Target: non-specific serine/threonine protein kinase
Amino acid sequence: MSPQTPTSVQVPPVLGGYHLYQLLESNAPTHIYLATDYETGIDVALKVEHHLKATSRSAIQYEQKIYSHLPAKSEGIPQFFSGGSLGGWEYIGVELLGPSVATLLAESGRSSLELHSVCCLGMQLIDRLALLHDHGILHRDIKPENCVIGLTPGTEQTIYLTNFGCGKYIRHPLRFMNDGDLQMGFFTYIIPPFVTTLAYTYRDDFEALALTLIHLIKPYGLPWARRGMLRQEDRLGQQLLSTAKANTAMEGLCSNIPTIFKDFLLYCRSMKVNEYPDYQQWRDRLSEPIVEKGYEAASPFYWPPLPLPSSPRASRHHSPVFISPQETHHLSLSPIPLHLPTLPAHSPQDDFHELLLGGHATKAALIKILRFDILPFANSNRKLADVVLQFCDVLQFHRNGPYITKDGFEFLNQLINKLSGGLEGVWHFDKEEGFVAVKLAELEDLRDEVRAARNKQQLAKMVICFGEAHRGKHDKKATKNGFKFLQGLAARLKTL
Model:
């Protein structure tokens, strides 16, 4: 029987000499299968995409072009075997790899990686970017999900940079143009091209790496990453994401983490548009905390570095220590040890963020976490503001669309009670023609007036108006003015 994608489109059981066995990952429109090369018997990761538009390139075509500009075998880059098209299906076969850093972190149940693990990961990724940039390639989708470990013996501690479907080849080095090419991935670690007049350059790859490292070492990650992963087609979401980035002060972003990561980010943002990053300088800088913690400077073959058996501090001038295979039989090198810090158990906030990011939880489940586990304990205006933004996120980014359900109105009722100190949300719903139009018009005024509210009682009455306007709508779909009101409500709560 032919393999099936999650959308039930029949994928041929054989593509270009590959026999497809099992669906490994699906991120529409691209699906990744475990497949075997009939001629060699090698297992590969086969990426397939159903692409019938002759006027545009598929992500797989982008990726195949990138591989054509890279050496056949490069450390930390998946080996490319072959690619082609058949019956509207584009495919490429690449090296089968292990789990991503994001997966390893999520499965650990912890909120961050330890310092030397992040530094070693950063050093390897700098090497990967140096290789790509030397060949005129922009990756344009640096994130923990695209940093994976090897699967074959000897590669378990090598970090691979994967997924070049968003990459771009620059024919003339240091000549960049903002040509409107939006073939990029998530914008959590990069600046969307439609909010700036500048082209995406090597500098932006480097900044995306800096933000990725901060995300991995900062407990619970980047502040705006907790709001969900936003796709390129979500223009409104990207505008809000860019605003969130701009409003996050550097001191807050880099608080409670080693200063080297703040220095790294400041360096990236100080670079000129057409400037090459200083790869060696930052590779050396990232090795310093490792040595200071008592480890050898990282070898490309050992990540994370193994602790020294004797002195707690190591000289920066020691020669690299190479371990023979006979000496490693007692070491547990697979799965990769991440040296994660011991942290408190997850809070309801963590559960909410993980469920929203995962994309599988129902809207009812998310709102019930807000209603019963988070809102009752929001005992300050700032915490109330955060809950309002989380409710806004559920409406705006959940796969079921921006519809206010029964649970949503119950949440609003509890919010009104919390704001007013006991006032219940009374929905003065009138079925007479014109009632909803009047309430929606009032909501348009409230989106501006909310920022001038004198106290929480006034805010509670405004939330009642918000609820009445949407409860009277046939489809219960949150309006643009409604989203602006909720965002204004959160902003006002933070200043009261």
Summary: The chain has 15 helices and ten strands.
